[in-house]
From TrEMBL:
This is Glutamine synthetase. One of its GO terms (biological process) is glutamine biosynthetic process. InterPro entries: Gln_synt_N, Gln_synt_N_sf, Gln_synth/guanido_kin_cat_dom, Gln_synth_cat_dom, Gln_synth_gly_rich_site. Belongs to the glutamine synthetase family. It comes from Cryobacterium serini. Residues 15-100 form the GS beta-grasp domain. Its cofactor is Mg(2+). Residues 107-445 form the GS catalytic domain.
Amino acid sequence: MDKQRDFVLRTIEERGIKFVRLWFTDVVGTLKSVAIAPAEVEGAFNEGLGFDGSAIEGLTRSFEADVLAHPDPTTFQILPWRGEVDPTARMFCDITTPDGQPAVADPRNVLKRTLAKAAERGFTFYTHPEVEFYLLKSSKYGKNGPIPVDSAGYFDNVPGGTAHDFRRRSVRMLEDLGISVEFSHHEAGPGQNEIDLRYADALTTADNIMTFRTVVKEVAIEQGVYATFMPKPMSEHPGSGMHTHMSLFEGDANAFYEAGAKYQLSKIGRQFIAGLLKHAPEITAVTNQFVNSYKRLWGGDEAPSFVCWGHNNRSALVRVPLYKPNKGQSARVEYRAIDSAANPYLAYSLMLAAGLKGIDEGYELPPEAEDNVWSLSDTERRALGYTQLPASLDHAIQFMEESELVAETLGEQVFNYVLLNKRQEWRDYRSQVTPFELQKNLEML
């Protein structure tokens, strides 16, 4: 770590860095930033940077407000969108109390705790997210809703299109930040795009997602358009998910891989999926944390609504992708409910905790879904044992508040704050009179 600190301090001097932004997130997953002068960085490494944590959503209670931000030198990167005018760098921070204890409500620490539990069992947790978002002409919207930048569809090539330049610029910027991109393409909705980040350990991935959102927003501003990670910005078009591929490694060996097993999926892999399925309703208030998230989950367009798994079945909640011959290291499972607006630190903590619970308790994996689950009737789904994901944020809150797994994984303070925050959002939403109601009822009733 000392070598890494020395590298950071040397780079700041050699590159003429004028500002260093210290980044962290609140419990909702909003990126927070405080800029310090280069001369203050060494002190921040040694002692942390003090600030009032009560000003941050869910971070502390007011009577324990003082916290310290400790920059992680391994996350140092120069921000490419700032260019050569006042070069600026960033580092992610771990938040502690003044006595040096990890702040219980720091989302990054929640994930670190859960990863430590996996490490005690000999596992390293890797994730690979496919992040979808919409490019709109503006953040403003009229009677017909937001206006996308194009009318293209899935994998469309649009000569001279905004999305081409946007994706090219975004990918280059992400690579400059040390974030490897696997794919980028136009998605199914007009103005909808997807950029897939390469596999990394879950903490690095969560940091990368927070950086990714910032890069996408910055490039959009630069190009005169607006990017949104809202789960379902337009009722008539698909929502934006963040399908995440996951695997556990024991040293250099993929614990999900077993040669000769069905789908080359090991017992550990099967138990991990069983854990995800059993606990999916309880973790949905975090993987899908907004009222709007449920418009995506229940709006069709390949969003999973029912708790089941399948081999290469895109209607299932958990999918086991096609096995690549002679590539045992690529064995993985894909969780398809999580959306692009989730707090990645908390969501990945709960997805890992659910899978580990399946392994620890030896959960049995139910039979796979071979049909298109959306095309089945409710009676057929019941007969096959497919329960549904929560149908609303209110429904998800009810599952979460009864969950020992979620309370234990998040810790008391984060658990209580998430519930408090989500209950308030539901109350605010429930009190609204929507255009739908006025259109349907005002003249008729």
